[in-house]
Structure formats: C-alpha cells, structure tokens
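Write out this protein's structure.
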Amino acid sequence: MAPVQVESSQLVSGGGQTSGPVAAAAAAVAANPGVRLSMLIDFLLQRTYHEITVLADLLPRKTDMERKIEIVQFASRTRQLFVRLLALVKWASNAGKVEKCAMISNFLDQQAFIFVDTADRMASLARDALVHARLPSFAIPFAIDVLTTGSYPRLPTCIRDKIIPPNPITKSEKQSTLHQLNQILRHRLVTTDLPPQLANLTVANGRVKFRVEGEFEATLTVMGDDPEIPWRLLKLEILVEDKETGDGRALVHSMQINFIHRLVQSRLFADDKPLQDMYNCLHSFCLSLQLEVLHSQAQMLIRERWGDLVQVERYQPGKCLTLVVWNQQVLGRRTGSASVHKVMIKIDENDCSKPLQISHDPPLPAGDSKLIERAMKVDHLSVEKLLIDSVHARSHQKLQELKAILQSYNHNDNSFIETALPTLVIPILEPCGRSECLHIFVDLHSGMFQPMLYAIDQSTLDDIEKSINDEMKRIIPWLQQLKFWLGQQRCKQSMRHLPTICIETLHLSNFSSHPVGNLSKHKLFIKLTRLPQYYIVVEMLDWPGCPVDLQYKYYFLSVSQGLTDPDDCPPTALLLQQFKPNIEELVLDVKAGKQPKAGDKHKLLADQGPTAPKKPKRSGEMCAFNKVLAHLVAMCDTNMPFIGLRCELSAMDIPHQGVQVEGDSYCHAIRILRIPICSSVSEETQKALDRSLLDCTFRLQGRNNRTWVAELVFANCPLNSTSAKEQGSTRHVYLTYESLLSEPVGGRKVVEAFLNEWNSIAKLYDCVLDFARSLPEIPSHLNHFSEIRVYNYRKLIICYGATKGSSITIQWNPTHQKFHISLGTVGPDSGCSNCHNIILHQLQEMFNKSPNVIQLLQILYDTQASLNAINKLPTVPMLGLTHRTNTVYQCFSILPQSPTHIRLAFRNMYCIDIYCRSRGVVAIRDGAYSLFDNSKIVEGFHPAPGLKTFLNMFVDSTQDARRRSVNEDDNPPSPIGGDMIESLMSQLQSQSQQSFAKSGSTVTYPLTSPPTSYHNTVTPSQQIMPTQSPGNLHSANSPSGAIRAPSPASFAPSPSPSSLGITMGPTPNFASPHGTIDPSSPYSMMSPSQRPGNWPGSPQLPGSTLARIPGMSPANPSLHSPIPEVSHSPRAGTQIMPTNMPPPRTLPQRSWAASIPTILTHNALHILLCPSPTPGLVPGLAGSYLCSPLERFLGSVMMRRHLQRIIQQEPLQLINSNEPGVIMFKTEALKCRVALNPQTYQTLQFKVTPETTDPWLQEELQVLEKFFETRVAGPPFKANTLNAFAKLLGAPTHILRDCVRIMKLELFPDQATQIRWNVQFCLTIPPSAPPIAPPGTPAVVLKSKMLFFLQLTQRLTVPQEPISIIVPIVYDMATGATQQADIPRPQNTSGAAATMVSNILRRFSEVHQSPQGDCTIYAAVRELMANLTLPPGGRQ
C-alpha cells in the first residue's frame, strides 16, 4: 500500500507496519526536509522584534536625522520580507500537486538507490569478507571469570587511564594552596614598585584586586612562585558610569574590554614596571572616557533642558571640554560685569596620573569655601551638577552685592542668604514671618534676579524683577511700597475668620468734608457684617527712623443705614472717633475683675513704639495676626447683641442682672431673675415651677454668634425617668433660638420665642404634677405596662407595652396652643409602626380636653391588643370588586370614632363597630344600625344578616356570666324613656359620690379605675330622647363630642319587649362606654345635655335626623367616609335600590340582634381579624387569597346579597323560601339553594338538585357545588365572578355539563392524565387576555354563541416558572363548532400561541363532526390540553 503523508517530516504507511522501502523513503524525505509555514512566520517575527529592540537601544544616541533614516530603512526591509512571505503563502496554497509529484519521484529514486546499494554490499561481502572468515577460539578464561566472579577484570588499563579522571584535590589541600598563593602575591607586591593610585587593593583566594574609584578594577594573579613569572590579568572591569544618559548600560563594549585586556596583558609581560604601566594605560583610557561622557551629557543637556543657555565652545577628544553659561548675547541684556562665563574641563598634560581638572573664567570669587570646592571637582561625573555648582557660587556672589545695598539703606538689616538655593530673604515689616519676606532668587540658567512674595499679584513681581535687574538700587523704593501693602494684608488676614468685610476704599457722600477724608492714603475699612452701620478704620503711617516698622491708628466710624442700593446713593459718614491707646491695660483690668460698662466704646491703640529687629520667624509662627484689631472687632461683635437683648428684656419688664462676664473673662451672659407668670397655668403649678427653677441664663453660641442658648436649671424634678442623662439632682434644659440674617441679633423675636417655650414648659409641668401625685396609687397593671423613659421639661416620653417597644411623646405646641402627641416604636420594634397611630388624632383631642396621663395610659392599655388585631386587616385599594372594574374600593376602611370606638367599613357596604373595654374584652356590634334607634338603618350601610350568630362562634366560654344568650339578644330590648335614663343616671351619680365620700382624703378605686379627679360630675339631663333605643350614653371624657348610644350590651340583661317594668339594679356603670357591669372602666359618664362641641373625625347625629354620617377619618375623609357624595362616590349608581324594593322600613325584631354588642376577648378578636386558611376546605381547593374570618363572613354576606340582584336580572327564577338567609332559585334543569355554611358562617354553600330527567351525575353536581364555593363565592369576593357564574347556570344543559367537566379538570388536575396543560375557567377577563373588554369584566357571554375564557398553564416536571396563556373560545350553538375567538391582538405580540391554538381547534372541528345536539366544548378543550406545544418564547 502506498504511503500517505501526514506531516512534512513524517511518512506513515496506510496500514500495517512500516516496510523497508517506505522507511528508506522517509529517511530520504527527512534528509531534505521542508520548512513549516508557522516556523517561517515565527522566524520573521523574531527577526523583526530583534531589529526593533536594537533600534530602541541605538536610536537615543543618534541625531534626529539619523534616527529617521534608520526607521525608514527598517520599515523597507521588513516590508520586503513580509511581501515575500505573502507571495510564498499564495504559491503554497496552489502547490499541492507539484509537491505530491516531487514526493513520489523522490521516493522512487530512493528505492532504486537502496536496491542497488544492497546488491553491491551483498556481493562485496560474499567476495571479500566471507572468503577468509573463521570462528575464533573459545575465550575460556574470560568465561570462567564471568561465571565465577561475576566481573570482567581483563580489560586493558589504558581504557581506565584515558576515560576515568584522577581524583580531585581535597578542600584542605585547596585552602592550603590558596594560602600559599596569597603569601606569594603579598611578597610580590612588597617587592614591586607599586603606584600610589593602586593602594586600594585586596588579596584573597589567590588573587589581588586593584580598585581605582570611578575608573577601573583589575584582578591579577601569578602562575607560580618564581619572581620572574609575569603577572596574569584575570579580570578587568571599567567603573566609569553615565547615570544620566547611559540608561544603566555599560559604556564599554565587551569586545573593547577584551582588546584592552589583551593590551594590558602584553604590557605586563614586556615592561619592567608592569603595574605602573598597567595603571597608566587604564587611567588614560578612563580619563578620555570620562571626558567623552561629559561631552555627551552636555549635548543632551542643550538638546533637552538648558537650550541656548549653555553652549559647547570647544571639545578635543581626550584633551579638553569648554562650556559657556550666562551668555549675554543669548540673554539680550547685561546682568553683570562679565559678559561670558566659562567652565573648562581638561586632562593635565604634565601629570597624567591626576584626575580631570576644572577651571573657571572669570575665576570664582573667594567666598564660601564649600561652594568653591564643589565647583572644582567632577567626581560625580555629571556635567549638569558641575554647571549648577559653578553658577551657584556665582549666584551667591550677586546676592552678596545686593545685600550690601540693603545694609547701606538700613544698618539693622536682617536679610540673609540661603545657600541651598541661592536666595536672599528680605524682611519687609518687623516682626516678619518667612511667608511675608521678599525672596529674591537668582535663576541658575540665566543669572537674573527673580523676586517672589506670597499673595502679591504677578504684574507687581514682574515690575520689581525688571527694576532690580536693570539697577539693583531700585529695590529700596519697592520695599517701602511693599511695607504698606503687607500691613493691609496682615489686617485682612486677621479678619479672615471674623464676621467682617475688608475694603480699601469706601464711597461716602461727604468724604471730602468729613474728617475721614483727611486720613492717610494707606488705610483699610473693616465692615462689621452683623452691625452693617459700623466700620473700624485702620490707618497706617511710617515710623520715623525705622524703615521696617509701621504705626497703626484705629478709628470707630458710623454711617447712615437703611439704604437699599449703596451704589446709587452712597452712605453718609456720621461719627469718626479714634480708639484710646490703652488696650493692654483694659485687658489686664478685665482679667483682674474690673468689669467695664457694657456698651462703652473703648479706644485702643496697637503702637507701642518701634520694635527691635528680629530674624524672620520660621513657618508655623504667628506674625501676621493683629491682636489689637481682632480684639476691637470681637469686642464690638460680642457686646452689641447682648446690649440689644438687654434692652428688649427691659422693655418687656423682665428683671435681669445685665451683661455679665463668665469663664475667666472669655464669655458673656445675661441672667434673668424672674420669668413672667403664665396666665393659662394654675397658681399652684406656677409656684412649684418657680421654686424648682434655680437659674435662667442667656448666652451666644456658634461661630456666627447668631444662636442664642437659654439654659434653665431645675431641681426637684417631679418624675424619675430611666434615661441615664436624667439621674442627677438637677436638670439642665437648653433652649436655642436662631436669629435670621435680616434681623438684629438679640431682637424681640428671641424674647417672645423664649416666653412661648416657657409657657410650653409650664403647661407640660402642670400635667406632669398631676401625674406625679397619682403615681403612688397607679394600678399595678399600668405600672408594669408603662415606663417613664424621658422627661426633660419640654416633652414627656413614656414607653409602654409588654416589651416597652411602643412610645408616646407628649409636649405642648405653642403655635396651636394645645398638647401634641406623637407615637413611635423603640428597641427591637423600632422598624415597626405603632398600632395606636390609628387613633392618634382622637387620643390627642381627648388629652387636650382632659390632660390626664393615667387616663391616657389606661386607654393605651385597653386598646393595644385590639388595635394590633385591627392593623392586620387589609386596607389596600383593589380593582375589579364591583361591576365597575376601573373603580377602586378599599376592602376595609378603619374609621376611628373615639379612642375606644373603632368603626370598620367593609367595601362601603357593611359597618362593624368595635368598642374597646377593660379587662381584655371588646364589644362588637353591627354599625349599620342607628345608635339612637335600632330599628333605623344608617344611610349608606346595610345590616349584615347573621352577624350575631357569627360573632358568638368566637365568644369565650368563660365569658358566659358576662353576656346574655343568643335567644335573649334576638329579642328586641324594652323601650326606655328619657325619665328612666335620668333616674338611672341620678342613682349612679349618687352611688359614685357616696363611694368617694367614704374614702376620705385617700382616694381608693378598683383595679383599673382612675381616681375621682378623672371623672366629671354627671348632671341628669332634662332632655327626653325621642327614640326608644336601648343604647347607653358615652362618658363625659369620651372624645366623641356628640350624643351617641353605644352598644345595648352595656345595659343589664333586658327582658322581652312585652315586659312593662325594667330592672336596672345591677348596673352601676350605666353610661360607661366599656359596656356591661365593668367596674374597671376608667371613663366617666355624660348626659346628653353635657355633650361638648363637635369632635373632629367623629360622626355627628343631631336630633333624630339620620340622613347621613359625615366623614369619619380626619386624615382622609373622602376615603373613609361611609356615605360619599353621589356625584363623586365611586359607588354612585351601584348602590341605588331597585325600583321594586320598598322604601326604608322598620326591621323585624330579630334583626336587632346584631345591634346588641357581643363581648369578645382579645384572643378571640385576634382570631377574628387575622388572616387564616378557610375552614372546611381542602388546602388544594382553597384559593391563594388568604383573608380573615371576618372578611370571609362579610364577603359571603355581600355575595349572597349580590346574588339576589343577579337573579332578578338573569333568566333565573326565584323560589320563595321560609328559611332565613337562604336563597333558592332554579334554572331550566337545576334547582339551586345558596346559604351560609351553618358550621363556620365563612363560606356560601351551594346545593344543586336536578329539576328535569336529564342524566346528571352526582359527581358533576358535586363539582359544580365545590366550584361555586371555592372559585365563585370565595375570596376575593368579586361581583362579576358571580355574574359570570349565573350566566353559566342559565346555559343549556349540554353546554353546562361540558363546562362542569372543565371545572373538574381545574379542581382536580391530578386526576387528568395524558395532558400537557392545566386549565382554569376564567369567570372574569384577566389582564393578560386579548383586549376585548376591560380586565375584570364578566368573561362569559351567552347568546346565539357562547364566549368564555380559559387559562392554560403548562405542566412542568422541573421547578421553573410555567408558561400560561389565555385562550378565548367561542362555541356556536347552531353548528356545534368550538373555535378560538378572533380578537385583534396588540402589535407588540407575536401571536404564535394564538395561531397554534386556532390550528388545533380548527383541525379538531374538521376531524370530529359532532352530531346535532351534542356539545364539543369539553372534547375540544381536552384535545387542546393534550396536543398544544409552544415553541421557546411562545408565550405571546
């Protein structure tokens, strides 16, 4: 088989092992192999990269033109290489056939050559070698050695001598040899004429190393101990380095070093003084190399940094280098006596052993020896450093000349020269800091003076530079100008952090005629920003005989104020007066205790004569601060506000001690002796507050001195709080008042704000005193329930609850003149909401009418558990609850009527009244019944039938003694006239007065009853109530503000209405809002004649007019109002009574049962109002909407009520029923019964019995009943769901049965097999359905054709989000065809799912032709669920 080539370097046979000819061919190919294309490209890239690297190393040393030439040549070469490579690649792509032919030819030639060569070798072997071939004799001795000893000892010894090396010498022998060699070297060095430059030598390890710093290092040895043996140079290293331009590379190439190595070695062999000759040779080479390095550095310095400022005048390789600096022709101006300055570097021709010699022209001056020494050495081998050292020495000479001019002007001149950088530091104004001195530098490149002064403009510096470079003596006038400029800058710097504005000129209308115009031209105006009508003027004058001192004079200037636009009409100067020169004496007097009169303008002067010249202070020392000026500004700025406040206090007749100095004369304060009496507080409280007040002081605080702080110190605090800051014997209260920029500091508003705060403290103190007196007798449950957390005289914070996680804050609001209450949470509950926020407004109004803290705590204790349960009710608005799908309705509206009375409105239809009572119970009644007459209905609400029975299911069995039986509640209460109410209230009042009179001075009351001070005197009412409602009356402390007859359960058990007498003996708390016989109630009674004015947020029921109830919630009346306006109510048009219904009527007697309150415990209320699963339903059948038992009951009652309306509108026939609460109707084939579940009263039961002889299966009827309970009449209780179900019931029997089968697939999806989708019967149009009608509309239309919607959800075996689609189906009753409704879909949807559904249903209609009268809905839906398959992303 012919060989097949796999790679260019291998030939492999197509099958089996490689034969001989094939191997020969492979060898022939391997002998002349090709080159792989990847290897060729790799070679080219490596060559290109190598050339780029070489260029990067060499180009920096060449000129710009040479670099460009090299780059162009490199680009041309590289381009030619890659063009050839491209041609080769294009040829190789088409050279496959030629390559194969060449391989075959080579293979055949190689085979022929192998055949011929084999025959020749075999013939030669047979003719020559095999003719004389004989077998050797047996090597018996060798065999015996191997067999006996296992070795072959008879090999020739020459093999061992030539192959096996001799053993190396030991370490000790090596050390001994090297030690001897070191001794030989030392002896040779001692006996040899050694140059002094080679004195730095080291002998070690048989070698001697000579090192000359900055030049070379040579390592030598000798090959024996004979003195005639010459020195052997082992290693040579050149130490000359170019650290600036050499880039760290060696300056001498290795080939050059090898040449020098051979040259030096030849000198060592031939010369009589080998070491001297070696040094001369290497030293001469190193000096030439150093000179070359300096020249290279000079060229780069000219090219990169210095430019024309340095020039190479002459360069002779190996001899000298001359550089020129400060060339006047280049600078264009004359800066000194010499026009050209030269630096010459040369090799000493007389003594070649010396280093490079430096000389300067003109010679350097005899000044600083260190500068001269640095400028005469080039050890560092840096031409730039050499030039800098040279010009540094010359700059020092120029600065010395300038300093001499200054000393001739001022004999006490303190200027000095800094040598690190040639700088002359000239103090301008004594004392002078370093930042205030004039620094004159010498430019090292050009030799010109350059002045520098902090904070001065650049144009002035340019003028100074030009003047002193032209003539040095011109610096004197400039120093005079800079002195006054620096004086102004010091004043401005001192005022930077003070409330002032510094201006150099002030435009005054009378400037020329006023004395301020006669001041010196060097002056500064300082405006006090808090006192804009006042200025401080600083005048600066020369001090005779002291060129570096200034004389300051300070003036107080007042101008006219009230100008709106100073630019149009400048102010007018009024008063100009100079401050007295006694500021230091004044300060000493104040510290000694001599307090000057407040408001006096003290005259100050900072000048104490000329100061002794001192050396300028270093950085960090304060020289520029003007203490006198700062003191003047601070004095005016500090005293004026206190003077204003003192005047306001005096004007308001508030006694005080005037302005006083505190804190070691660093702080001012005003102490108030007596605060005015608050008119709204009792005299006793005012006296107690005055006794506890120890001190009242006003102080200024803050950087801007616009914040007043009033410190009040109290003693004998009536309350002990748990705050760590309130445990001392005294309490400090700080009141802050911010003065606006548009108002004067210390004005009337500050005093008025303080009096308002004091009034707030007094009002709260009055309330706290009453609370403190009652604390010893507080009930134990309130003591454990609450805790005083903070009382700081401004607010009272009480934490309450089982974990003290809720807080209530009480403080007086001076703006609204009433107490303000805020609620919150603390500790672990800080992220939650306080449950009492619902009744916050009612609590606040109640507390303002009766500011009693214990009564407030009792209400919080009684209502906390109830409000926690009420907060669990859903209050989020929802869509689609009624037939108006776009109208939003709240599920529950919480309408607080009073702190203990909460009204719940369920979807603006049903109303539940909850009365919070003591001892852990609540009273619940139907709020639809009037509080005055239980036979009347409140307009806008409807009674909830069966509410009494439903609530009794949650009654605790332990409360049987405190409640009546259901049979007694179902009977109407006996009518009670006004005279009977008055007599009962009079008896109760007399009993309560007797009980309190027996207690004497010490008030005793039951467990949770408050003291007698919390009750108002009950006055029997002379008004006779017009109705016969058995409701009780609210207490006087109830914030309802109107006559309301709460729950009749607050009365004693009442007999039948047929009874003529009423026994009210065991009811001592007849008017208590907490209900039946509750001695723990903390609320007092109130007769109808004692009712106060309107109560915000609670309904008013005046007289017997019960037309409507106003908005309940003060926060959102329009949202919580149970009776909205017809024109604005979302329920307008939906709550209109049918025309065939009678007008409002008096209800039968048994319907009054719900108006009688039912007593429930807090645990029962929590179960009633908290969401829980629906009882009696399988978890798989129950919906996902979790709601409370009360919501399920009211929703079921509402759905039952709505069903009555639907029966009148749909083709359903109503059947009269004698059972209360039961609705019976029938269709063409079914008789239906709807009623509340008698076991739970939380669901509607639907019982169906066949009316005709149609073969209804019992299972189908059960599915229809279960579907009604779980999907129709269950949460979230949508009216349109019931409408759609009623339409289904009115459908023909064969259609209804198919729908029931689909309902079965929905209820029991696990029973269906061989299907890919789960189905859900949509009774309302879902949001994702095609846009045929608004979402929430009934999804069943039944006319000549039937339209309904199904939701198909994909069955998945893996946990992921399933795909759901909405399918609108139309069933034609005439043809029996089931198809998808043709509804236009949005343009942004693909419609792939709808197309596939239409195809499946169309194919089903074509294949299954149903007989006349049969329904195909179920079969078509089943086919769709079994065969529908969507592509990925085919949801739309």
